[in-house]
Amino acid sequence: MATATGETSLIRFPLFLTLMTLFLQPCLSSVSQSKTSHEFSIKEATVQDLQLAFERNQLTSRQLVEFYLGEIRRLNPLLKGVIEVNPDALFLADEADKERKAKAPGSLGGLHGIPILIKDNIATKDKMNNTAGSLALLGSVVPRDAGVVAKLRKAGAIILGKASLSEWAHFRDSGAPSGWCARSGQGKNPYNLSADPCGSSSGSAISVAANMAAVSLGTETDGSILCPSNSNAVVGIRPTLGLTSRAGVIPITPRQDTVGPMCRTVADAVYVLDAIAGLDYDDKETIIASKYIPRGGYKQFLKPNGLKGKRLGLLKNFYFSFDNGDFDHLFSALRQGGAVLVEISDASKFFSVYSSKENYEGIAMTAEFKLALNSYLKDLVVSPVRSLKDVIAFNNKFSKLEKIKEYGQQLLLDAEATNGIGKKEKEALINLAKMSRDGFEKLMKDNKLDALLLLKSDSFILARGGYPGIIVPAGYDSEGVPFGLCFGGLKGSEPTLIEIAYAFEQATKIRKPPSFKH
Question: What gap in Å lies between CA 376 and CA 122, rounded to an integer?
C-alpha cells in the first residue's frame, strides 16, 4: 500500500485532532452513530466483520477511519488512550479503497484496509512522533519503520495513530501510576474510570476496548500486554521471544522485550499476529524463533473444539482466593470443552523456585536498559537526546518549568548508575535462567501440560524465560473492573495456546463493551 511520508511533525495531538475533526465534520456526521449508510454497525465489529462489509460494499476504509477519528475526538479527552493520530490516515484509507476496487494482490481480506493503533514506543517512519510517552523524544526522527510496522504496511493495514502508554514502558519511576506519561497525561480504564488501566501498554488496551480502533499493538517486558489486557477486557498475546521483531522499538531489555497484538477477540489478535510474526534481519532473535512459525500461519488454529484433550495446569490451592469472583464456572467451561484440568498439589514448591532475597530480574534489567536505550538513541536520525544521561537531564530541566505534573525518575537514575554487564549482572542472568528451567519448564514437562492457567500477576513466569501467553476476558469484579484468564506455554506453543484461548472464548463469550463507570 502506498504511504505518504515526510519529516517528523511537531504538531501537538489535541490541536491537530481538533483541526482534523473540524475539517472532517461533514463526513463524521454520517458515521457518528457507529453505522454507515448501509446500516453496518462498526462498534465492536471484528476484522472478519469489517472485511465482509468491505466485500458487500457496506463500508469503505475511509468511512472506517472517519468513524474511529470521530470516536477518538469524542472519547479520548476522557480516556487518553491515544497520544497522536496519523495525519495521513485518510490518505492511506483512500489508497486501500482504490486497491480493493482494483482487486490488487493482497487487497481482499486479512488486515488490508483495517486501522490499527501502534504503541508509542514502536517506530513509524511517517509524520508521527515516536517517544515512549516522553517529552524528551519529541521531534526525534527514526531511521526506518519498526520491523512489525513494515510488516503491517505490507499487509495493507492503516496506521491510525499512536497509543499512549506508561512512560518509558513503565521504566521511569516505580511511583508513577500505570497509564501515565508526560505527553498525554493519565490514561483511564473505560470500564471504571477510577480503576487502574494497568501498564505499560495501557493506551493500546483502552483504545480497542472503547472502540477507538479496530486492533492495536502493544509491547511487553514483564506484564505490559497481559496486565492491561486483563484490566480492560481485551485479548492480549505475548508472543515467544523473537517471534515478532523488536527492531525499531524503544527497548527495556532485548532479553525479555516482545511485541504483540491487543484486540477485542482472539481471532482479531491472531490476524495481527499472522501479519507481524516472522524473520527480520535487524533482530537476530527472529532468526532463532522463526522455526516456531507453522506453515500456513496461525489462523488455522482458530478451532471451536480447541480445548478437546488439552491438559491445563491449575494451581487451584494457591489461586482464586480473592474477590475477583467465582472461577468454578470458568473451570466448568474448560472441562465441558474437553480439557483436562491437572491440579498441581504443591503450588508453593513451584513458586519457591522463583523466590530469592535478590531481585535478579531488576538487577539484570536495570543494566540492560541503559545499554539498549543508548544504542537506540544513537541510531536516531535526529534526536534532542542521545543517551540515558541526556534523558535524565531533560527531565530535571523540564520538571523545574512546572508545566505539568511530573513524577520522579528513580528507575532511570538506577539504570544510569550501572556500568555494563558485570559480575553481579552475570550472576543474576544465570539465576533467572535456572528459575525458568527448574520452575516453569519442569512443571510443564513433568505434568505433560499443554498450558498453565495463570493470572496477570504471574507475568514474571513467562517474561523471564521468553515464553508465550494469551489472556482472554474471564469476568468482572463487583466494581465492574474486568479480569482475564491467561494460558501460558513453552516457547513456540502459540498454535496450542490459540486453540485453547479461542475455544474458551467461544464457549464463554464474556467480553462486553465498556460502561465508562465513574
Answer: 12
The answer to whether residue 368 scores a pLDDT higher than 90 is yes
Nearest CA among 211, 207, 244 for reference residue 228: 207
Give the DSSP letter of residue 244. B
Chain segment 441-499, per-residue pLDDT in tens? 999 999 999 999 998 889 999 999 999 999 999 999 999 999 999 999 999 999 999 99
Task: Give the active site residue among 200, 207, 231, 245.
Answer: 200
pLDDT for the residue 407: 87
- Find the catalytic residue in 224, 229, 245, 383: 224
pTM over 0.90: yes
Active site residue 493: no
Q: Which of 61, 107, 119, 204 is catalytic?
A: 119
CA 78/CA 66 separation, integer angstroms: 19
SS3 assignment for 223-250: CCCHHHHHHCCCEEEECCCCCECCCCEC
Please report the pLDDT score of residue 385 as a whole number. Answer: 98
Q: What is the pLDDT of residues 489-517, one digit of tens each?
A: 999 999 999 999 999 999 999 999 999 98
Q: How confident is the model at residue 27 (pLDDT cuts 50, 70, 90)?
A: very low
DSSP secondary structure of 432-499: HHHHHIIIIIHHHHHTT-SEEEE-GGGHHHHHHHT--EEEEEEEE-TTS-EEEEEEE-STT-HHHHHH
Average the pLDDT over 294-300 and give the result.
Answer: 98
Domain 17-167+175-234 listed as CATH 3.40.50.150? no
pLDDT at 23 (0 to 100): 39
Task: Collapse the DSSP code of 83 into the 3-class scheme (helix H, G, I; strand E, B; otherwise coil) and give the result.
Answer: strand
Beta strands in 207-361 (DSSP E): 215-220, 235-238, 258-263, 311-314, 340-343
| Helix (H) or strand (E) run with residue 484 in it | strand 482-488
Told to judge if 224 belongs to the known catalytic residues of this protein, a careful annotator would answer yes
What cell does 92 get?
Answer: 492511506
Long-range contacts of 388-392 (CB under 8 A, 24+ apart): 388/412, 388/415, 388/416, 389/416, 390/136, 391/134, 391/136, 392/416
Residue written as cell 491445563? 312
Give the pLDDT of residue 266. Answer: 98
The domain segmentation of the chain, as residue ranges, is 17-167+175-234, 360-425
Q: Is 184 a catalytic residue?
A: no
Mean per-residue pLDDT over the chain, rounded: 91
